[in-house]
Design goal:
The protein is mainly α and about 500 residues long. The protein is built from 23 helices and two strands. The chain is globular, with a radius of gyration of 25 Å.
Length: about 500
């Protein structure tokens, strides 16, 4: 008879009806599969990074705004005058000049390239930072340290921005800020979901989306309170709390036990799991043996090995390519729709408010349904719905303008929900050793889709077909590669490429 001695056979007590788990995933599920107060605290604390990410993303709306002005000499000036053709003595700003970089540095008549340079620099920094920093969370730094590094870089560059003497230095610091901010949300998402069991993985991931919306909504409140103050004070308001947040994360947040095990740091993984275990002490004694017996698998040997692994494995490259194509289409609508509101014959302030608020139900629906709906089908459905409604924006604008804003809101809401689902689907499709790199690449595709949105919006001022029409066709077509991907709802997290590849082959139906 083959040896079937339980792991705790040395104990005087007879073996119970339940054997200790023999796989790493089962062991982790037994230890952290519940959702106690400690895990709730960890998940919320990690997800708060999204608040600061949102504030840094949209702060230029207020700091780089074109201020309003009024005439002081009505003999040569009126409300329809071009400010650039008037003498400086004929007009004045409605608010103090230091409320915006445009009025403080006298760029009211500068070219659109110079005025938009700071925001573009932040955007390009985010793209570049995502490519350079994404692999560090999988290779050397880990999830927690990468999150700390990104938040510190983001907040410190924001503090230095306060001392900018001109728009050129300001733009350089905005680039550095975007570079550091590139991996904040992805690290927070991956770390928070790896600290809980699979039952709560989707709900915990959605907490970050709520926090991002909270940060977006809080920014106008802070800007309104500081509306007569210098634009520099707004940077301090969002930077100092981030420093405090980094201190809390350093002392209170655990590193992902899955990543620790994959990197061969088994003792640290055991210590982390014991501190988080929701079960009896006897189990915490048994999973130590299970972890030590497991093969960790040298999944990352240098900072760029995760990218090479993703490209080398055909099934992984196909998954990543399909998700990045879909992400490109989603990003084009997600970033383009709010920019195109000026092309719709509806009050701009009302439409912007409605768009901002539509992110809340998108996050709420994702939170409530994430455990009940299939990832692939729902993501494909939302991309198609967003595409159809975006095209209908063009039609309604010509035959029924009052419904145009309704179609725009449905399209943006669907893109927001697809944005959330795409990130959750990505983290479930890839193993621990490359998970952060994969989700970062998908997020970069989302951001890259936003690069083309301002150009299409500008070209579509006279013809919405160029903007909303292209948006709709892009997200609809880009969602089609999802058809060939596997479903992940209710599945387990794999930690190595070999595990994921074995599961992938087992899921392929055998041909008769």
């Amino acid at each position: 008879m083959s040896d079937s001695t339980p792991l705790l056979s040395h104990s005087d007590k007879p073996p119970g009806p339940k054997l200790p788990p023999r796989s790493l995933d089962d062991t982790i599920e037994r230890c952290i599969g519940g959702f106690g107060w400690f895990q709730i605290f960890q998940a919320i604390l990690v997800s708060l990074a999204w608040v600061f990410d949102a504030q840094q993303t949209f702060i230029s709306i207020f700091t780089d705004a074109q201020p309003t002005w009024h005439c002081t000499d009505e003999s040569v000036c009126n409300s329809f005058s071009n400010i650039c053709q008037l003498p400086k003595s004929a007009w004045s700003w409605d608010w103090p000049a230091h409320t915006s970089i445009i009025s403080e540095w006298g760029h009211e008549c500068s070219t659109s390239f110079i005025i938009g340079l700071p925001a573009s620099s932040s955007f390009m920094g985010c793209l570049f930072g995502g490519l350079v920093l994404a692999t560090l969370a999988d290779s050397s730094l880990g999830r927690k340290n990468m999150l700390l590094f990104s938040c510190l870089m983001m907040s410190s560059s924001s503090i230095f921005t306060v001392f900018s003497p001109n728009i050129w230095i300001y733009s350089v610091l905005r680039f550095i800020n975007g570079f550091g901010r590139a991996t904040v949300s992805t690290c927070a998402l991956v770390l928070s979901t790896e600290l809980v069991g699979k039952r709560w993985r989707g709900q915990v991931g959605v907490i970050g989306f709520f926090c991002f919306t909270l940060g977006f909504i809080s920014l106008p409140v802070m800007a309104y309170v500081n509306r007569a103050s210098s634009w520099r004070s707004l940077y301090l308001w969002i930077s100092v709390p981030t420093i405090v947040y980094c201190i809390l994360v350093h002392f209170l947040v655990h590193e992902s036990p899955r990543w620790l095990f994959v990197k061969g740091r088994k003792e640290e993984a055991i210590t982390t799991l014991k501190s988080m275990a929701q079960t009896a002490s006897a189990l915490t004694m048994s999973f130590s043996n299970v972890l030590i017996e497991q093969e960790s698998g040298d999944c990352n040997v240098d900072i760029y090995s995760s990218i090479r692994i993703l490209v080398k494995k055909r099934w992984a490259a196909q998954r990543l390519a399909a998700l990045m194509v879909t992400g490109f289409g989603i990003g084009m609508v997600y970033y383009g729709m709010p920019l195109g509101l000026g092309n719709i014959s509806v009050n701009l302030y009302l439409s912007v408010t409605l768009n901002a608020l539509s992110e809340l139900p998108a996050s709420l629906i994702t939170f409530l349904l994430i455990g009940k709906i299939n990832r692939k089908e729902s993501l494909l459905g939302f991309t198609i719905l967003s595409g159809v409604c975006s095209v209908l924006c063009v039609v309604m604008g010509r035959v029924w303008p009052s419904l145009q804003i309704a179609m725009e809101l449905i399209s943006f809401f669907s893109a927001c929900t697809a944005f959330n689902m795409a990130l959750i689907y990505t983290l479930e499709l890839f193993p621990t050793c490359v998970r952060n790199s994969a989700i970062s690449m998908v997020r970069q595709a989302l951001v890259f889709g936003g690069v083309f949105s301002p150009l299409l919006v500008a070209a579509g001022r006279k013809n919405n077909l160029i903007s909303f029409g292209v948006f709709g066709m892009a997200i609809g077509i880009c969602g089609l590669p999802l058809i060939g991907l596997p479903e992940t709802r209710g599945g387990t997290f794999c930690d190595t490429m070999d595990e994921e590849e074995h599961k992938h082959k087992a899921a392929i139906p055998t041909l008769a």
